[in-house]
Each structure stands twice: as C-alpha cells, then as structure tokens.
Design a protein that fits this description.
306 residues, alpha+beta, six-stranded antiparallel β-sheet, 6 helices
C-alpha cells in the first residue's frame, strides 16, 4: 500500500486529508472503532443519574454504529499512474509499470461493461439502466473541488457534510473547530493550470464494498486530476485586529491534485446518488502499486482456500 499522502492544501489543514486506504478485501483486518465508551467516574458517585448516563452511552453507540455503516473505502487497485516521463528507468520496471497500468484500465473498463450488461432488463435487447456518465465527472469534480475549498476556508461545516464522505467530513470539521477564534481564512481559485493536460480522468471504476452488517454496497468511483493556482490568506477579525490581513499569511501556490469521488449506486434501479469527495491520492509508484496488487491477490487466494 502506498504511504499516506500529505494534503493538497497544507495551509488550510494541519492533519492529513485522506491517504490511500487498503483494499476493501482487507475489511476484516481494519482497526475497529470501539462503540463502548468508558464508564464515567461520576456514575459511581451519583446512582440517580445512571439511567441518563446509560441513555447517553446508548446514543453514542448508535452514532458510532451509524458512522461505521456509512464508512467508505477506496475500491481495490485504484491507480493514478505517473506520466511516461516519470516511469522507472529500469526496462524491467518500465514495462512492468506499463503492464500494470494497462491491466488496471482493462479491469475497470470490464467492470463497467459487466455492470451495464447486468443492468439491462433484457440482455442485449434493452438499454442498460446503469450509466457511469464519465463525461460529466470532470465538471462535477471541478465544482466540488471549489465548493470544498471555499467551505473549508469559511468554516461552513454544513456544506462540507453535504459534499464529503462521513470520514472526510469528521476530519475537516475537526480542523475547522480547532482554528483560533477571530481568525478568518479566504481561499481563491486564481486559475486552472497546465490546461493542455488537466483536468483529466485518471481512473474510473465500479465495485462492491462490504458493510459491517454483512451486506454489500455498490459504488462507482472516479479520480479526476486537477492542476490549478490557488491563493490563501488569513485575516484577524478580533477587536484589536480590525479585519486586517495577518502578515505573511498570504500564499499563492501551483497545485496538482488527484481528487477521488464516490457515489453509491442502487443495486435494483442502478440509479446513482450525487458524487461525494472521498479524498485525494498521490501518483502511484511501480513498487507501491505492485505490492498492493500482490497483497490483494494473496488475500483473495487465502480467502478462496478457507
């Protein structure tokens, strides 16, 4: 698995945005989130409040259970391939990366075609109900990219909740809550960069994701690469600050981001919910992606034997 990547906007967030999550096949190996809160010390000294405390604990368990049921993981073998100029110099690794890239594209295309065939009311005679709408993913990703950045700068948690996956929202909301009071942040998209190459779809695929209750969830996922120039600045809105720009807080940076979007698909009607931002990825290296593919293959083999 690839290492956790640093966020694309380090001046907006201090913690990680999202890293490359292990394949859903490793679902059973993930760390679990405890749903049993520690017993409050006050419960031993105030028996009359036991019922209230138990009720609060029950609500907490319900919230955590709901959070777990909504958790989303990146679909296995998602690949943001580097350009040929950054392929390994070794001929063996160069052609190895080329093969892995072609294999990933063939797999994702076959999965989409298979789902389209499955969604036909009458095989080969009716129109598929499932549509990926790949051509619409780039303008959608650009719009969500701007909305997330503006909402994060403005501390608009309602917008973040509506356009991000639950886990990403929790991270971003915590960052907003942790900011110094009286400090205002402004974000601006100055322009899109490297228009001859970006934005582009780096990866697109469909797949099933295991759920905590033993069921499966059908997802479609796309990775859109965006290059842009962004400006960020902070302002002091405290009484003595007067809304002035904080010295040396303004930054203008050239960013290349690989934005991962996911949308849940109804397994009966094959209608998809609106896209949500899952996070960002870095370009894969030959070694990291090869290791991921081998790990997934080994786990699948182990599961087939058991």
């Amino acid at each position: 698995m690839a290492d956790l990547m640093r966020i694309s906007r380090p001046w907006l967030l201090s913690p990680l945005l999202r890293g490359r999550t292990p394949s859903p096949i490793l679902f059973g190996l993930y760390r679990t989130i405890s749903t049993t809160p520690p017993r409050p010390y006050a419960a031993r000294r105030a028996p009359k409040k036991t019922k209230l405390l138990r009720s609060a604990s029950g609500n907490k368990r319900d919230e955590m259970s709901q959070f777990q049921s909504n958790m989303t993981f990146m679909l296995p073998e998602t690949l943001v391939a580097p350009p040929l100029s950054r392929y390994p110099r070794s001929p063996t690794k160069f052609f190895g990366m080329l093969w892995l890239h072609a294999r990933a594209r063939a797999q994702s295309l076959w999965a989409v075609i298979s789902l389209k065939i499955t969604s036909q009311p009458k095989i080969l005679t009716t129109k598929p109900q499932f549509q990926f709408h790949k051509s619409a993913t780039i303008p959608t990703a650009k719009a969500l990219h701007v909305r997330m950045s503006e909402a994060l700068a403005a501390g608009d948690k309602d917008t973040l909740r509506s356009i991000c996956t639950p886990e990403l929202y929790v991270t971003l909301a915590a960052t907003v809550d942790g900011r110094a009071k009286g400090t205002r942040t402004e974000w601006e998209l100055v322009r899109y960069d490297q228009k001859w190459r970006y934005p582009r779809v780096a990866d697109w695929r469909v797949g099933y994701q295991p759920l905590h209750d033993g069921g499966m969830r059908l997802l479609k996922q796309v990775v859109v690469s965006i290059a842009s120039v962004q400006r960020i600045a902070r302002y002091d809105d405290n009484a003595d600050g007067g809304g002035r720009k904080i010295p040396d807080s303004e930054r203008v940076r050239h960013m290349t981001e690989h934005l991962v979007l996911q949308a849940e698909v109804d397994g009966t009607t094959f209608e998809a919910r609106p896209w949500r931002i899952w996070g960002t990825l870095s370009e894969a290296t030959y070694e990291s992606y090869k290791t991921e593919v081998e790990n997934i293959r080994a786990i699948m083999l182990e599961q087939s034997k058991s």
